Amino acid sequence: MTETAAVRWSIARRIGFRWAFVYILLYVFPWPLDLLPGLGRVWDRYNQLWIKLTQFVGNRLLQLPVDLSSIPANGTGDSTFSYVQMLCAFGVSVILAVIWCWIGRNRQEYRREYDLLYLALRYFLASQMFVYGMVKVIKDQFPDLSLDRLVQPFGDASPMGLLWTFMGFSTAYTAFAGAMELIGGTLLLFRRTAVLGALVLVVVMGHVVLLNFCYDVPVKIHSTHLLLFAGWLVAPHLPRLLAVLFGQAVPAVPEQDPITHTRRVVIGMHL
């Protein structure tokens, strides 16, 4: 078997990677460019494009009974608008992936693009975990119980209100949950500990997603994506991790041909 054949990806893997690459970039964009000052108007126009596309698909194509002309302003991420927007992102990513398949039909592998996406996901997930963790550690997300909460009849509490009550009651538990998110995010910043960090976040975000669904917290879409991203970072190392778990011989890391990256990418991959 030649070296070229050894690194050739299957058709299914190439198609799947193209779609995943486009969808993930659409989901995380404009991060990290939105951190740059002076570009607020650019991102506002970009968001307006998505809003108009979502409204067109929901109102004209799907003809939903819900009016999508007004955007939810209560901070929810699980509204009808949000689900239609996610459907639009899925559809756009399929279209772009099909175009990519035609343009890159002679490409046999995407190792360079895979490495770049893996690196970007590490830092994106880490940045999200810093936000998730800090608001818990400083007790901003789950504050101490207020007087109106204490005198509210138990039966009048919403599922989300009940969750906020028992999380706010225990400072230690809330700080522990936030600390685990911060630890997982920090481990992702370094190549040698990235897999461990992703494993930590699979457990941590699995718990978060379960709470969001069971207590009807309107962050289901975003938290589920973060859980899937953590799982995506773990997936390439799963055979070796399972071998360690079951006491089997750990497969050697396959040798790969050197790939030319820019200096900044090389530094990021080796942190």
Structure described in brief:
The protein has 271 residues and is mainly α.
Please render the helix and strand layout as text.
Elements: H1 3-6, H2 11-28, H3 40-61, H4 80-103, H5 111-137, H6 147-150, H7 159-169, H8 171-188, H9 194-214, H10 220-234, H11 238-245, H12 263-269
Helix pairs in contact: 2-4, 2-5, 3-4, 5-8, 5-10, 8-9, 9-10
What does this molecule look like?
- The protein is mainly α and 271 residues long.
- The chain has helices at residues 3-6, 11-28, 40-61, 80-103, 111-137, 147-150, 159-169, 171-188, 194-214, 220-234, 238-245, 263-269.
- Helix 5 packs antiparallel against helix 8.
- The longest helix is centred in the middle third of the chain and has 27 residues, at 111-137.
- The chain is globular, with a radius of gyration of 22 Å.
- It starts with a helix and ends with a helix.
- Residues 1-6 and 255-260 have low confidence and may be disordered.
Question: Can you tag this structure with a few keywords?
Answer:
single chain; 12 helices; 0% strand; disordered N terminus
